[in-house]
Amino acid sequence: MKKFMQEFKNFALRGNVMDMAVGIIIGGAFSGIVTSLTDNFINPVLNFITGQTSYTANDILGFASSFASAVVNFIIMAFILFCMMKALNKAASLGKKVEETAPTTKICPYCKSEIPLDATRCAHCTSEV
Question: What topology does it adopt in the membrane (predicted)?
Answer without folding.
Answer: Multi-pass membrane protein
